[in-house]
Amino acid sequence: MSLTDTYFAELSGALRAAGIFQPCLVLDLDRLDHNIAAIKAKFATGLDLRLVDKSLPCLPLIQHIRAAFATDRLMTFHLPISAEMLKAFPDVDLLLGKPMTVAGARHSLTKGVLNGLGDATSRIVWLIDTEERLAAYGALAAELDRELRICFEVDVGLHRGGVSNPDALARAVAALANYPRLKCEGVMAYEAHIGHIPKLLGGPAKARAKAVSLFRQYVACLAADQRKILNLGGSSTALLYDSWVGANELSIGSAFMLPTDFDVPSLSQLQPAAFIATPILKVVDVRLPGLDERSWLLQKLGLLPRRGCFLYGGKWMAKPVYPAGMKTDKTFGFSTNQQFMALPDDASIGANVGPDDYAFLRPTQSEFVLQQFGSIQVYSGGKIAAQWAALPFS
């Protein structure tokens, strides 16, 4: 199931048959199912999967993966999306993946998107990264006269915030005695940095071992009834672990779609499952705007492509994959209206590189990009089999 000319020709035919002649996001359901099976095969025995909603911002998409893993755990990052998760999935338990301002939490619970959801909000676990935020949430729980579930964000080397060391966590856990309406559920750690540590500085294996050691030290600060959530991992790291890691759940989101930012060794068995498809509007012999007579010289010097095309739309967070050899070029700048793309010198109109043919790009990430098109075209069995609505930004 490699990305061949035949694959994109078949996908183009499916888009034509479905009457789709504008930019769209295509999800290859068969490739997604391959990725689900591959992740299940490598996922640590005895640990639960926590799906990351920001990377899979589509209710049918989340439900499809949830069903495959029989998981009721979600990690959520944006309260309007959190509210949609609570309404759509009565059994899910939500862990915030980033700390929310206490003012934002108060507003959402009393006047905003979580207001009116009643007991459903008891399925949210708020993230605490500092003793100051702990005190603020303790005051909020007292003000609202309700129990708020919390989890501590702990730093295992990423240095993007969170409780900075096990001693600091021990102090925060002790301080919980001052906030009787807060209930500690556990800790959350993220270690996306480990795959980027150069060998000269110890490499990924050493960084992973250090992160795991720190994680276990943080867990040791918790009482037995405070260890419901021992969360670790992300798409690029979760499959590196076995059950020995000391966590009871691992987070994964983007890996199921495999955008280009996740082309990493730990995910080598997965396949790209999401593409931006857009019609080619024009194929041109490139001439430099306003400087026609100098174009040949720049082309001879390799500073200007000889052939190019203009796409319907553009400036997406995505990398071109088809037609073969198509690439971005700064000649005409970037455009959300008609994006110019360079083509190989021998590209000729007619060989799937002409007006009304389709160009395809792979998103660099799945979060945000999947929401840009309103709906997702679901490709399966050689045809567009369904349309799934993406979740709105707010």
- Fraction in beta strands: 15-25%
CATH architecture of the largest domain: Alpha-Beta Barrel
Q: Classify the helix fraction into a percent range.
A: 25-40%
Mean pLDDT, to the nearest integer, reads: 94
Per DSSP, the total helix count is: 9
- By CATH, the superfamily of the largest domain comes out as Alanine racemase
What is the tally of beta strands? 17
Total of domains = 2
Report Rg. 24 Å
Stretches where pLDDT falls below 50 for ≥5 residues?
none
CATH class of the largest domain: Alpha Beta
Order of helices and strands: HEHEHEHEHEHEHEHEEEHEEEEEEE
Pfam family, one: Ala_racemase_N
GO molecular function: D-serine ammonia-lyase activity
Organism: Mesorhizobium neociceri
InterPro entries: Ala_racemase_N, D-amino_acid_metab_enzyme, PLP-binding_barrel
Write a structural description.
With 394 residues, the protein is of the alpha/beta class. It folds into 2 domains: 5-11 and 272-389, Lyase, Ornithine Decarboxylase, Chain A, domain 1 (Beta Barrel), CATH 2.40.37; 29-259, Alanine racemase (TIM Barrel, Alpha-Beta Barrel), CATH 3.20.20. It has 9 helices and 17 strands. The protein has helices at 5-17, 29-42, 59-69, 79-88, 102-110, 131-144, 166-175, 203-219, 295-300; strands at residues 24-28, 48-52, 73-76, 93-96, 124-128, 148-154, 182-189, 229-232, 249-252, 274-285, 307-312, 318-322, 327-328, 338-343, 358-363, 375-380, 383-389. The model has no long low-confidence stretch (mean pLDDT 94).
